[in-house]
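Support reply, case 0932

Customer input (verbatim):
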Amino acid sequence: MIIEEKVINNPPRQSVFYLDFLRCIAVFAVVAIHVLGPFRYLYGEIPDSQWFAATAINAITRWAVPVFMMISGALLLSSQRPFDCEDYLSKRVAKVVLPFLGWSLIYSFIAGFMVNDRFTGTWSMIETSRVIEHSAKDPVWYHLWFFYDFIPLYFVIPLLLPVLKKVPPELMKLLIISWMVLYLMKWLKVESFLQQNLILYTGYLLLGWYLFNRDNSGQLKYWVIAGVSMLIMNTWGSWLLAIETGRYSSFYMGYKTLNTVIIAAMLFVMAQRYAENIQGKLRILIAVIAKYSLGIYLLHPLLLIPVRNLDNGFYSWFVSNWLAIPLITVVIVFLSLCSVVLLAKIPLVKRLVP
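Our regenerated output:
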């Protein structure tokens, strides 16, 4: 899959359209995962066709969070500027930490209105206090788990910067292959003290940096063959596991499994090769969505509160989940985008939607 590459000698740019494209599609993918969420554990309770639609879309979108990590690695590890601790903490780390803390408080307050994931209309200070009390180890809302693993990576990046400048390409290739083996071990539940989130997710930073700084066109077909094979395996494997066990299984859905690594790398290389063909208004729209991608990620679960309550019947407006999930996803993304753009115009609030 990985053969001889040509190293790009030009210093990497800090604004690259194909990375914007990846941010854009990753936002749609992660919103789709949350839109289909209520159906995951309903195997046998709803028609098989409806469950399979949700599971198939779930299986082919699990690359979203890893792609975000790869983009961060591609840009931050490729920086040519001398490292400045104060600047890094104030401009890089704070840009992620402050929104995380702010939205954790917002969702903690909202949690006071929720009972069994349903909005009650009556606020409970006890429930909000309980959520805040446990927030050190448990995210206050389902999507905020990402920051518990992502923020520590910002403290790994400065340690990697001087190392990557001295590591020969062939040694880096070996390190990435070794990291992929760790993902295979994690997937197959082979226990090892090395399999900790910080180590495993750091690999996505390195993979993003590695692919970003190389011409991967010669290996594109290998990544596509491997990635498409993993997508097919994810979809049908999840279906077969459900038939065998009688319930939903997340075996093929992990962010720390080799199949997800391969799919994320395939999409990165494909975007690198083809995204520049996108022109006109669509290109502008993609850049706008990419600019506000973090804000969209943080805000969109608010809009999904009434949608994910199946009693409200939003999904039943459509003939099938094959239509409902993609269309609701598109609507939620654009409503979130409009909301974030408006919030970004408010002086203090804009810090929450970077």
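We compared this against your earlier run and they match. Two observations from our side: DSSP finds 13 helices and four strands in the chain. Strands lie at 6-7, 114-115, 118-119, 214-215. Please reopen the case if you see a mismatch on your end.
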